[in-house]
């Protein structure tokens, strides 16, 4: 896979709505084209009394409990962003404004596929500026409880994800992928988030998973998958963990490196990125030489 050379946004606004996985409220998001260099920014349209813009970055992460949550200095928050972020990573969207009228993104079917289809329906527009990558220069690794993470130099983004659950329906699974748009669409996009039956009651007591259902999550109980339709892949669980990892990594923008996680999740993903950026000798920003072209996206930003 050759790294994309130029920044991109979308051709036109795109809208979707649905129930929040954890909060259980109905939320609506509008994806809007954005100018070169803006980055990805959430705008809480329901907040009018303080700063409602939340710029996506690893430094904006405030919680990694069951999902990834971002916040700005004024306390405006947005959560469960990882599925959308994975879709944006797969198609190389650098600049985007996301209006949202609530605190959490809609779960839709619990995967990235609806977001990917939404983006592809309106189309992607290359912009007249080089794309900036985070190039990994040396190996960074850490352990967090029984989880382990490793990021090391590689020409492209490469994911090596292993999960190990006691539940027989999940068990030990591993996936390796160098994700581009096609491989993401075919192998990761439709993999849904999952939960274990004994955890669901505890999650709801903690104020989470209020909107969870068989329509937006896979639920397992020991050796059984409780969803009437079963699984989309035999290893759907590790595929979704790879999807989550891809979305969490994209908070920093596109990365050139191999990322390995064992028994990981949002907490490990964030801890690994935090340790990486704390070591100035472990990474650097690089840009690919840009193609000569007169095409740009000024018309869609008017």
Describe the structure.
With 302 residues, this protein is of the alpha+beta class. The chain has helices spanning 82-91, 113-122, 181-188, 197-205, 236-249, 266-278, 298-301; strands at 6-10, 14-19, 26-33, 40-44, 53-55, 61-63, 69-71, 77-79, 96-100, 124-130, 132-136, 140-144, 147-152, 157-164, 172-177, 194-196, 218-221, 224-225, 255-262, 283-287. The protein has one domain (6-301): lpxc deacetylase, domain 1. It is built from seven helices and 20 strands. A hairpin with a 7-residue loop joins strand 14 (157-164) and strand 15. The longest helix has 14 residues, at 236-249. Residues 298-302 have low confidence and may be disordered.
Write the layout of secondary structure elements.
Layout: E1 6-10, E2 14-19, E3 26-33, E4 40-44, E5 53-55, E6 61-63, E7 69-71, E8 77-79, H1 82-91, E9 96-100, H2 113-122, E10 124-130, E11 132-136, E12 140-144, E13 147-152, E14 157-164, E15 172-177, H3 181-188, E16 194-196, H4 197-205, E17 218-221, E18 224-225, H5 236-249, E19 255-262, H6 266-278, E20 283-287, H7 298-301
Parallel strand pairs: 4-9, 11-19, 14-19, 16-17
Antiparallel strand pairs: 1-10, 2-3, 3-9, 4-5, 6-7, 7-8, 11-20, 12-13, 13-19, 14-15, 17-18
Helix pairs in contact: 1-2, 1-5, 5-6
């Amino acid at each position: 896979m050759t790294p994309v050379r130029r920044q991109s946004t979308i051709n036109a606004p795109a809208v979707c709505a649905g129930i929040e996985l954890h909060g259980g409220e109905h939320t609506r998001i509008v994806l809007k084209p954005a100018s070169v260099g803006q980055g990805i920014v959430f705008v809480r349209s329901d907040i009018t009394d303080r700063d409602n813009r939340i710029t996506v970055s690893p430094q904006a992460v405030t919680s990694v409990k069951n999902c990834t949550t971002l916040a700005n200095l004024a306390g405006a928050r947005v959560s469960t962003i990882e599925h959308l972020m994975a879709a944006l990573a797969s198609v190389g969207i650098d600049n985007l404004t996301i209006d949202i009228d609530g605190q959490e993104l809609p779960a839709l079917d619990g995967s990235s596929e609806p977001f990917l289809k939404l983006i592809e329906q309106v189309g992607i527009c290359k912009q007249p500026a080089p794309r900036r990558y985070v190039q990994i220069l040396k190996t960074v690794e850490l352990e967090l409880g029984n989880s382990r993470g490793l990021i090391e130099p590689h020409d492209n983004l490469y994911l090596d994800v292993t999960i190990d659950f006691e539940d027989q329906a999940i068990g030990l699974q591993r996936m390796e992928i160098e994700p581009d748009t096609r491989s993401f669409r075919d192998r990761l996009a439709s993999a849904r988030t999952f939960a274990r039956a004994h955890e669901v009651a505890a999650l709801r007591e903690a104020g989470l998973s209020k909107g969870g259902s068989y329509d937006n999550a896979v639920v397992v109980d020991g050796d059984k998958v409780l969803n009437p339709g079963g699984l989309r892949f035999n290893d759907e669980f590790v595929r979704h963990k790879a999807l989550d990892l891809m979305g969490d990594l994209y908070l920093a923008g596109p990365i050139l490196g191999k990322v390995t996680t064992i028994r990981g999740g949002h907490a490990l993903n964030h801890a690994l990125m935090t340790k990486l950026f704390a070591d100035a000798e472990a990474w650097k920003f690089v840009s690919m030489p840009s193609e000569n072209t007169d095409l740009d996206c000024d018309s869609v930003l008017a």
